[in-house]
Structure formats: C-alpha cells, structure tokens
Amino acid sequence: MLRSAGLFILALCVLAACTLAIAMRPATAKSVVADIDRHLIAITTDFSGQDVLIFGAVDQPGDIIMAMWGPQGDVQVHHKERVAGIWVNREAVTFGNVPSFYGIASSRPLYELLAPDVLDRYQLGVGRLRLKTLGADAPNVADFRSALIRERQRGNLYADKVGRVTFVGDTLFRANLRLPSTVPTGKFLIEVYLARDGQIVDAQTIPLVISKVGFGADIYRFANNNGFAYGVVAVIVALLAGWLAHLMFRRR
C-alpha cells in the first residue's frame, strides 16, 4: 500500500510538471505528454503479473486513448478435426506480425470518440487488429482470425474489454494496464493518443522492456542457446528424480 501511494504521489508530481511544461510550451510543442512508472519490468520465478501505471497531461480538455503492443511475430492457427476418434490438424493459416500482447484503455467509449474508419486506421480495439495472412488466404480465414483472438484472450494476452483512463481535473490523466503472469518478454510499445472532435490531434509512443532475470532467466537463455544440451540435461534430471523417488519409497 505504501509503495502504491508513493508511486501515485510521484505520478502526480510528474503530472504537475507536465502541466507546467505544456502551459509554457511554444506553438509547435506537443499537446499531450505522457510517461510510465517504470520502463523495465523484471520477470522472476515468482512473477504473478503487474499493473503498468501510465500518466500524463494535455494542454486543453480532450479524450485519451492508450494502446499497448507486445513484440510481433508469425503465428500459425490450425483447424482440428476428429478422424477415427483422433483429433488431427487439418487446415492451417499463418498470420504475420501478430502482436503477442494487446491492451487498450480510453477515457470514454471508443465509438463515442472516433469514427469506425479512424479506429480501423489506428487499430484501436481487439476486433480492429489487422491480422494479415502469409500466403494464400483460406476461404474461411475470418474463422481462423477469430480463433486466434479468442485463444489470446483466454490467455489474458489480448484485452477482452477496454480499460479506463481517469482524468484528474481537465488536463491530468492516468490509467493502469494489466500485464498477466504469462506476458512474453521483449520490447513493448505504449501509444497514447489525444482525441478531439472525432480526430486524433496528437500522439506519443512510450517504450517498455520486459525481461527475465535471476535463475529462471539463466535457464531460459541456456535452453534457447543450447537446445540439444538442455534436452540432455532435462532427461538426466528427470531420471535422477525418478531414481531418488524410487529409493525413498523402497525404504518405506
């Protein structure tokens, strides 16, 4: 509780500084200034998820939309069918540049702030992510796209609802975006948009790095850099564990 209170007080101080800076800005300065409470999140063996505090200030009243993107990569989605009582993979579709994580928050419902074509342009909302296929499109590619989104949402990697951006007065804002325990590592981007009169008038991108640390990180790096050796060690450890368990039960 003390740590959370301290972070909130620090955020308010930074927000006050942002407001002062915006008030004294030249004509070409930005209309929105934002930051996060930490730019590096360390994942240890007891990591159970964490909130990212995003805060900032605007020069004049408006609405704020935030989108957090995880590292992108190719993802293959399979369609399984039951054949002779066994589930087998049949059709498969590969999507390129799929974000491994996607979270979103706004000060008001998205449909009240921007027109559908603007929401599509900025990919604001899980249903508006441009998940493009690699190679020839399958006739039922929309079903594969929906299955991919559902799977990511079940793993808490894609937002199933829009979070809330809260304003403190007319110019200061803050929001929390939740990172689950299964969040991938890598470089994340948080995009903060200022919307007025149905248009995006300014934006800022904030980097965030999520990295494994400690003994778990050492094992992870060893497994990725020495796949064969890691497999051999894993088998030996499993055999030793089984042998020790056998000895213990024999003595009983």
TrEMBL record:
UniProt xrefs under Pfam families: Alph_Pro_TM (PF09608)
Residues spanning the membrane: 228-249
PROSITE patterns xref list: PROKAR_LIPOPROTEIN
InterPro entries linked to this entry: CHP02186-rel_TM
Signal peptide: 1-29
Keywords: Membrane, Signal, Transmembrane, Transmembrane helix
Protein name: TIGR02186 family protein
